[in-house]
Design brief:
By secondary structure, this protein is of the alpha/beta class. The protein is about 45% helix and about 15% strand.
């Protein structure tokens, strides 16, 4: 069986010292591709460097909603303890466009109303620029939509986006159905073994629109333990149980979805 992790952050400092071992474990489990998502200039460049160093890693360049307006919200400890340097969104978009041949997607980008509820319009402005970039260079777009699921789907539909990946989507059933009807894909993390919400999502979304992610080092199947790309196999196993299919059937379809969507051939 072949597997794909469509959303990871292996450039994280939490992988310093044993990244080669992490990648070896992924290969041993059958992972063929890891799409690593940058979130700002520093991580975009680290992602590019890793994609050139390791054939297993493919790059996705992003503009995380909080990072993009950090000069407005100020330094904070959201779900990651890190210092974010203010940067020019327009300059970074130009850099991404110049390196469009080096990436397979734009993301992660989107909206985060949990961390910055007072700056919705500013986030939307950056989001729209990210959407225009994805359309211009014809790349899939990976969406972060924490507590902003309805607005994210509305904006994506208004802008006629088709190659859309809803990463770690926590919206209600009606929004999941709306995303499915729009042709969006939903990437499912290994934390499905601990969160019933993702079991519900898998039940609602056709297998042809499902993808597997880890969001490594986050969203681990075991609380408090660092997540890693090899764990996409755990997600496939749970999807197979929910869909009443074999793991081989699920892995084959999700691999097909991923390869076609991200043009990984």
């Amino acid at each position: 069986m072949e597997f794909v992790d469509v959303h990871a952050h292996v450039e994280s400092s939490r992988f310093e010292g044993d990244l080669k071992d992490v990648l070896t474990r992924a290969k041993e489990k059958g992972v063929s591709f890891i799409i690593n998502s940058g979130v700002n200039p520093e991580t975009n460049r680290k992602t590019l460097e890793l994609s050139k160093k390791y054939s297993l890693i493919k790059a996705s360049f992003g503009l995380y909603p909080i990072d993009s307006i950090i000069e407005l919200v100020g330094q904070l400890d959201d779900d990651v303890s890190r210092v974010i340097k203010p940067f020019s969104v327009d300059k970074e978009i130009k850099w991404i466009e110049e390196h469009s041949k080096d990436c397979v997607a734009i993301g992660e980008v989107g909206l985060d109303y949990q961390i910055a509820p007072d700056f919705k319009e500013e986030q939307k402005a950056v989001f729209l620029k990210s959407i225009e970039l994805a359309k211009k260079i014809n790349k899939p777009i990976v969406i972060h939509s924490r507590k902003a699921e309805a607005d994210a789907i509305k904006i994506l539909k208004e802008n006629n986006l088709r190659k859309v990946i809803m990463h770690c989507f926590n919206g209600k059933k009606s929004l999941i159905r709306e995303g499915v009807e729009a042709g969006f894909y939903f990437s499912v993390p290994p934390v499905i073994t601990r969160l019933q919400h993702f079991e519900m999502l898998v039940d609602l979304v056709p297998l042809e629109q499902l993808l597997t992610e880890t969001d490594s080092p986050y969203l681990s199947p075991i609380a408090g333990v660092r997540n890693e790309p090899a764990n996409v196999t755990i997600t496939v196993k749970r999807i197979a149980e929910i869909k009443n299919l074999t793991e081989k059937e699920v892995a084959k379809q999700i691999y097909k979805n991923s390869v076609e969507l991200f043009d990984l051939c």
